[in-house]
Design goal:
598 residues; alpha+beta; D-amino Acid Aminotransferase, Chain A, domain 1; six-stranded antiparallel sheet; four-stranded parallel sheet; globular; cell projection; flagellum; TTLL3 monoglycylase
Amino acid sequence: RFRKAKLHVEKAIKEKKIFAVQGPYPIIRRLLRARGWVERKLPCNGKQLKQQPGDQKKQQPEKAASGGGDEQGETVLNPPPWPRDNGNKGDSDEDTKEDSRQCNEDSDDIHELMSFLVQDQVPNFLWTIRLSSIDQKLLPRIEVVNRYPRLYALCTKEGLCQSLQNLPWFQQVDFNTFFPRCYRLGIEDEQEAFIEDFRLTAARSLLKLALQKVGDRPVGTEQRPKSDKVPGDCIAHPMLSTAGPCSPPYPQLLEEALEVCEQHLGVLGHQDIDRNTPSPCRTCIDWDRFLQEYYRVAHEGTRLVLSREQREQCQDLLQRLEEQLPQLCIEGNLNVWILKPSAKSRGRGIVCATRLEEVLKQARSCSNLSARVCEWVVQKYVERPLTIFNTKFDIRQWFVVTDWKPLTVWFYRECYLRFCSRPFSLCHLEPARHLCNVSVQKRYKALHPDPRVPPEKIWSNKQFQAHLAQLGRADAWQQVMVPGMKAAILSALRCARDQVGSRKGSFELFGADFLIGEDFRPWLLEINSCPTMRPSSAVTRRLCANVQRDTLRLVLDRKENPACSIGAFELLYREAAVASCLPVGLKLLVTGSSLKKA
């Protein structure tokens, strides 16, 4: 047995097939072993593995040093207890439990013996849940790594918001066509821009409410369902006005909304360039009073009475605004915004709000904490999403970046849908109806569930396509959604790549989250690094295994055989190589003569 293990190890070292896995990835481990790779197992108890530079002596585990860096002159492969995954939607606690089980698996197997024999070898392939746990002196010696450093500009809510604002410098695409408008509340200028946007959206919503009737009742009087809130949830509900729903709004309310929208159209048409036209939100309107009256109309059912001329003005203004504002199609009547903490994942800390003061109060609630923890972004909530059986869903779409310079991106043709637990309703802003994260929805039980909604709250894209065919829109997937998701992913990568740490030999599997609008257009919500591979359903058990298998085909097998199968991956984009601008030997010499004085 020892002889067999030794021969296998010698062959693996010669062929550079030593790997290490950090995190709950049993599929990766099994697939690499099937390819003849030998694992160098990493400690799971916070111990560190030290190796003298230039030496291949047997290593001895030592306790990790606390409160300081690694000792000088030593190469350290030091994974602490499995850290929280910043870009992962799964549960870190469950990751730790699962990985602890993996550390004890095959204890009497030949793999344990082979791992002991290669403990002095630098891995040729590393699949890790967190790059920062690997010593930077050792990292350059590992040929293939599944992570890129410095992904803040792409994989945090704040970073993506900032990166997409710079998109016009990279390509002539308006990010407002695929990314709901977003503001960083920690930046004073952006907070002011959000306040102005909130007011303008309220004015547009008032025009819609003036035209809309719900049966025989005035608009905004939909009954709220009973609360089934889970303890600890934070939900921002509209607050009742002291004026009461029966008292009519002040007479100038609708006229002020019409005036503001007309001024905004002038700004959008650049009519304010050659004259001192004030900003629509800096007019003589009393915005505090305007918003309070708008809340009464939108949330309490206060009746608006308008003349035929005003009705025609509302219709005309909304039609012209629709031509100028690509996001008017996702706005409803209630002006809902979603507030997200930048430093958290898996839906933690996210709240929806319909009042300006609620958003600003929430953003200031952690002012005593460090600036890094306290950063918030506020984003326009998609009030008109496509629903399935009156239930909200989003899409997790995978893609792989194998190089940043030149940018090379691979799109995965399979994905899955995540459903909420309860029917969609803007009258009740609880997470069970609005946040599709698996880690959020597992806290809720569906009350009187629609039997057509899958009990595991997961669908494959094939099931979704079948549903679209039943709606008579079988073409929407290939003609609208997939091209839209590809374009959004590529745009995000282009404007963030200069901020990402590029490293030859590295690659990364990402998970992008999309919401689908009523018109079937996809809206990018966020991009996750190191997306969870833990299956939560029969669908994800199959798809997560497939994407891991195909990723190894793409980054390992394809190197030896470019014609090999890469499964469901397809090349999305490969940037053309840029020739050197200045040929070697070119002399930049300026010649001329001085000007003679008259």
